[in-house]
Each structure stands twice: as structure tokens, then as C-alpha cells.
């Protein structure tokens, strides 16, 4: 993996996860304030964090975005290894080469990977969980799984794919077809999302998942910010309460009018809160 200093212009970069899978990403910024690593959610890609990464770079951070295994331009796992522990391994080379202090930001399934990555041995100065926590609501997970399952047969046109996203969040306006085109690939005259359909076949036992992620979080004393999308069913007051049992000092912010996103969506709305959180940590270190 290249160690050359990036600029504000995105520099494509690739690396190999410990199990040999090729991971595709981009690096922006010089890193005077440290490194922010953005992990996307299931059925998203690195493009969901692109605008946030550009702002992070402009603010003085090295920002890294990447396609997790089975998504976008990264390799599919031949054996279907898409567990959160497997996804965390994709972060290992990034953590080794990152300019400290390092902040991990994980959206949805990317949050699971960010928590698991704490066990990889690199000191992390702050963790941001975006619309995810160790304990999630079955209704929210079911909504996403139904969307994914309904997408497996593909679409005749990008407009159909955009309409499918609208069904996932019926209270939100469906995105324009142009917003999802980059997330689609054509095969046999049909359009498919650019992710391996096996990615949502893992971790069906939500109780086991919650206990495992709680156990990891309990081993590390680090600041945690939870950003909860008000219009999403993924989290509940129970989710927040359980997180605070493990990390009593966790900061929680609720964003009104925001729903859970998947293919073609952008996570840029969260950056201001992420930046505020990191800035507060910098201030605490300087006191």
C-alpha cells in the first residue's frame, strides 16, 4: 500500500486484506489532524462517503474511503466470508499505515466492522457509529433484508432501481435515477446493484451479534459517538440504553428527517456531527 502523501484530490489506492482479497479505495488529504477512515454500509460503496471525505480532507485530515469486500470495485469473497470480523480485516492495512490520531467511522454494517477492528491492535482515538449499534431492532434489519432480496433479480432500468429505494424508505422521496446509476452494473441486458448478493446472508442471530460487539467495546476505553437517523427503524431507545451500559460516556445525537440508506445513498449529512465530535476530542487532548 502506498505511503505517499495524498492531496485534496482523491488518489486511488488498492490493498490486500489479510485473506488476500483486493480492496479498492481512495485517499484524500494531507493528515495534519490525523486520519478518518470511513466504512460504508451493506449494499453501499465508497461513493456514499465521498462528499464527507472531501470535507474531511479540506479540514486537515487524511480521509480514506473504500469498497468493502463484495461491494463496488473490491473483490467478492469466494467462500462468502462477509461477517463483521471478515470486513474488519479489510481495515487492517489501513490502520497500519494511518497517520495518528485515527478515527473510525462506520455506517450500518460498516459500524460492525469498525467495532471489530478495535481488536486489530492499532490505537483508535475515536469511534463514530452511524445508524448502528451492537443492539439493533429486528424490524429495521428486516426492512433492509427485504430490499436486498427484492433486488436480486435485477432491474430493466435505473428508474426501477431508484423506485426500489423509495420502497425501503416510503416517507422519503425516491432518489432520481441519475443518483443510482453509478451503483449499478449491467449483466445479460439487466441492471444489478454492484454488490455480491451473499453479503446479507451473515450474522442472522442478532442476539449473538449484540453480545459479540458488546464484548469488543467493553475492552476499549475510547470516546464513542452514536448518530441515530430519526426516520430509521434500525435503532431504538433500547439500542441506545444498551450501548451506554457498555460505554457510559457515549455521546448520542439524533438527526431529524434522516432515514437508513443503502445503494446509491449519500452519508454526507453526518459529517458535520462527526467533525464536531473529533474537534471536541482534540480540544480535550490539548487541555
Provide the succession of SSEs: EEEHEHHEHEHHHEEHEHEH
Q: Taking strands numbered 1, 2, ... along the chain, how are they ordered across the largest sheet?
A: 1-2-4-3-5-6-9-10
Can you name the CATH architecture? 3-Layer(aba) Sandwich
Name of the CATH homologous superfamily:
Alpha/Beta hydrolase fold, catalytic domain
Characterize the biggest β-sheet. Answer: 8 strands, mixed
Strand residue content:
15-25%
Overall outline: globular
What fold name stands as the CATH topology? Rossmann fold
**Nearest-integer average pLDDT:** 89
Query: Tell me, what is the CATH class?
Result: Alpha Beta
Low-pLDDT stretches are: 1-7
The number of distinct structural domains comes to 1
Organism: Nocardioides dubius
GO molecular function, one term: hydrolase activity
Keywords: Hydrolase
Protein name: Alpha/beta hydrolase
Structural features, described:
Pfam families: Abhydrolase_1 (PF00561). It comes from Nocardioides dubius. InterPro entries: AB_hydrolase_1, AB_hydrolase_fold, Carboxylesterase_BioH. Keywords: Hydrolase. The protein is α/β, with parallel strands linked by helices and 287 residues long. It has a single domain, classed as Alpha/Beta hydrolase fold, catalytic domain (Rossmann fold, 3-Layer(aba) Sandwich). 34% of the residues lie in helices and 18% in strands. It has ten helices and ten strands. The strands form two sheets. The chain has an eight-stranded mixed β-sheet with strand order 1-2-4-3-5-6-9-10, sandwiched between helices. Strands 7-8 form a two-stranded antiparallel ribbon. The N terminus is likely disordered.
Amino acid at each position: 500500500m502506498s505511503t505517499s502523501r495524498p492531496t485534496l484530490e482523491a488518489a486511488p489506492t488498492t490493498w490486500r486484506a489479510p485473506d488476500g482479497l483486493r480492496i479498492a479505495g481512495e485517499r484524500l488529504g494531507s493528515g495534519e489532524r490525523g486520519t478518518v477512515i470511513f466504512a460504508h454500509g451493506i449494499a453501499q460503496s465508497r461513493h456514499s462517503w465521498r462528499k464527507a471525505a472531501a470535507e474531511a480532507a479540506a479540514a486537515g485530515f487524511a480521509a480514506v474511503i473504500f469498497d468493502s469486500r463484495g461491494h463496488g470495485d473490491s473483490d467478492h469473497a469466494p467462500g462468502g466470508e462477509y461477517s463483521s470480523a471478515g470486513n474488519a480485516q479489510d481495515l487492517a492495512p489501513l490502520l497500519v499505515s494511518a497517520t495518528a490520531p485515527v478515527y473510525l467511522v462506520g455506517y450500518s454494517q460498516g459500524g460492525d466492522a469498525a467495532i471489530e477492528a478495535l481488536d486489530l491492535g492499532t490505537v483508535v482515538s475515536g469511534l463514530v457509529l452511524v445508524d448502528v449499534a451492537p443492539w439493533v431492532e429486528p424490524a429495521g434489519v428486516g426492512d433492509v433484508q427485504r430490499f436486498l432480496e427484492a433486488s436480486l433479480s435485477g432491474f430493466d432500468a435505473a428508474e426501477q432501481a431508484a423506485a426500489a429505494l423509495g420502497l425501503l424508505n416510503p416517507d422519503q422521496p425516491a432518489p432520481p435515477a441519475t443518483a443510482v446509476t453509478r451503483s449499478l452494473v449491467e449483466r445479460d441486458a439487466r441492471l444489478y446493484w454492484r454488490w455480491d448478493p451473499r453479503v446479507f446472508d451473515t450474522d442472522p442471530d442478532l442476539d449473538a451479534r449484540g453480545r459479540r460487539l458488546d464484548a469488543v467495546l467493553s475492552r476499549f476505553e475510547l470516546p464513542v459517538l452514536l448518530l441515530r437517523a430519526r426516520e430509521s427503524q434500525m435503532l431504538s431507545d433500547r439500542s441506545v440504553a444498551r450501548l451506554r451500559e457498555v460505554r457510559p460516556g457515549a455521546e448520542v445525537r439524533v438527526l431529524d428527517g434522516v432515514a437508513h440508506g443503502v445503494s446509491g445513498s449519500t452519508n454526507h449529512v453526518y459529517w458535520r456531527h462527526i467533525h464536531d465530535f473529533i474537534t471536541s476530542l482534540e480540544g480535550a487532548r490539548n487541555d
